[in-house]
Specification:
- The protein is an alpha/beta fold.
- It folds into two domains: 3-106, Rossmann fold (3-Layer(aba) Sandwich), CATH 3.40.50; 112-282, 3-Layer(aba) Sandwich (Rossmann fold), CATH 3.40.50.720.
- The chain is built from nine helices and eleven strands.
- α4 (97-100) links the parallel β4 (78-83) and β5 (105-106).
- It starts with a strand and ends in a 19-residue tail after the last strand.
- 30% of the residues are buried.
- InterPro entries: D-isomer_DH_NAD-bd, NAD(P)-bd_dom_sf.
- It holds the Pfam family 2-Hacid_dh_C.
Length: 286
C-alpha cells in the first residue's frame, strides 16, 4: 500500500524533517505534504487516500482531530500516527479517544535517550568544571589557576526514571556519582546500572547535588518543580530539566536563582517555547 504522508511539524524543525523523509521514504510514499494546521492537509483528506501522520508539537492536536474524524468508518483513512517526540502529551490524545481508537500510534521513545543523557551529564560537568571561566580566561589570554569540583561522589536525584532517566543515570554512575531514580512503580530497588530506584524522592532532596527532571507533562506534574521543592534542596545544588516545561514554575526558578536558594539551573524546556527574549531566565541577576 502506497501511503500519503502528512507531516505536521514545528516550523523550526521542518527543513530537517523534510530532508530525512525525502531520503528515507520518498520513494515509498505516494506523496509527502507538510503543514502546521488542519487546513494544510484538506486536499489529502478530501482525496481519501490512505494516509500516515507524522506529528510534532501542540498544533498537531487539531490535525489529528480533523484527519481522524472518520471514526464511524471501519476503513480508516489514517493508517498510523508517528510522533517525532517521545512525549505525546502535546497532542492531548485523551480528548481524541474516538478519533484515534484503532489507529496504531508510535513515538520516538528511546530515540533521544542517549543524546539527552549526554546533555544532562554535560550540564553537571559544566557547573563543576566552570566552563565559562575557562572560556573567559582563553578570551583574555590569561593563565589562571583555580580549583575545580569533582563530580565523583556527587549525589544525583532523577525524577521521572524511565528510559531517558535511566540513561542519564547510567552515564552519571560511570562518572562515579551516587544516583537515585524516582518513578511511580519500583520493580527492583537497584537497577542494572547500579542506580537506586525509589517511589518518593522527597527525603533525598536535601542531600542531592543535582536534581534532574525528566517528568512528562500531566496535570499531576504541573509546576512540580517549584519554590517549595527548591527550598528543600541544598543552596549548592543544581536543578536540571529535560522533561516538559509545564513541570517547572519559571517564576520560582528565577527567584530561587536570584536569592541563592539554589546554585544554578540548566533548562532544556520552558513553559513557553521558544523562550521569549524578554524572559529573565536568559540573564538572572545573580
Amino acid at each position: 500500500m502506497s501511503l500519503t504522508v502528512c507531516a505536521c511539524v514545528l516550523k523550526t524543525n521542518a527543513d530537517a524533517v523534510k530532508t530525512v523523509l525525502a531520503s528515507k521514504i520518498a520513494s515509498k510514499a505516494k506523496n509527502i505534504v507538510f503543514g502546521t494546521s488542519a487546513e494544510d492537509f484538506s486536499a489529502v483528506k478530501s482525496s481519501g487516500d490512505p494516509t500516515a501522520l507524522f506529528v510534532e508539537g501542540p498544533t498537531a492536536h487539531s490535525v489529528i482531530k480533523n484527519m481522524c474524524d472518520d471514526f464511524k468508518n471501519p476503513s480508516r483513512q489514517v493508517k498510523f500516527i508517528y510522533s517525532l517526540t517521545a512525549g505525546v502529551d502535546a497532542y492531548r490524545l485523551h480528548e481524541l479517544k474516538q478519533e484515534v481508537e484503532g489507529i496504531p500510534i508510535h513515538n520516538a521513545q528511546t530515540l533521544y535517550s542517549n543524546i539527552l543523557a549526554e546533555h544532562v551529564n554535560f550540564a553537571m560537568m559544566y557547573f563543576n568544571r566552570f566552563s565559562w571561566r575557562l572560556n573567559e580566561a582563553k578570551h583574555q589570554k590569561k593563565f589562571e589557576k583555580f580549583n575545580m569540583i569533582p563530580v565523583e561522589g556527587k549525589k544525583v536525584l532523577i525524577y521521572g526514571y524511565g528510559d531517558i532517566g535511566s540513561q542519564c543515570g547510567r552515564l552519571a554512575v560511570g562518572l562515579g556519582m551516587d544516583v537515585t531514580g524516582v518513578r511511580r512503580t519500583v520493580k527492583d530497588p537497584v537497577d542494572q546500572y547500579g542506580v537506586k530506584v525509589v517511589s518518593d524522592g522527597d527525603a533525598l532532596l536535601g542531600e542531592a547535588d543535582f536534581v534532574v527532571g525528566v517528568l512528562p507533562g500531566t496535570e499531576a506534574t504541573k509546576q512540580f518543580f517549584n519554590m517549595s521543592l527548591f527550598k528543600r534542596m541544598k543552596p549548592s545544588a543544581v536543578f536540571i530539566n529535560i522533561g516538559r516545561g509545564s513541570t517547572q514554575c519559571e517564576a520560582d526558578i528565577i527567584e530561587a536563582l536570584n536569592t541563592g536558594v539554589i546554585r544554578a539551573a540548566a533548562l532544556d524546556v520552558f513553559e513557553v517555547e521558544p523562550l521569549p527574549e524578554s524572559s529573565p531566565l536568559w540573564d538572572p541577576t545573580r
